Amino acid sequence: MAKNLKLKAARAATDMTQKDLADAVGAVRQTINAIELGEYNPSIRLCIAICKVLGKTLNDIFWEEDEK
User: Fold this and answer.
1) How far apart are CA 2 and CA 27, in angstroms?
2) Which terminus of the chain is more exposed, N or C, with fewer CB under 10 A?
3) What is the CATH number of the domain that holds 37?
4) Is 16 a domain residue?
5) What total number of domains does the chain contain?
C-alpha cells in the first residue's frame, strides 16, 4: 500500500493532530499514523468516520489514483 498523503494533507488543513483525529473517530493515534504510512487498511466504517470529521468524501481521501 502507498502512503496516504491525501489523509495527511486533509488532516493538516484542518489543523488537527493525529491524536485529535483519532479521538474524533474513536481510534488511537497509532491507527491514524499507520493509515497515513500505508501500513494499515482501515475498515469502511473508520474511513467514513474520518471523512465526516475532515469534511471530505471517500474519493477525496481514500481513492487510489492509477499510476501509469
Assistant:
1) 21
2) C
3) 1.10.260.40
4) yes
5) 1
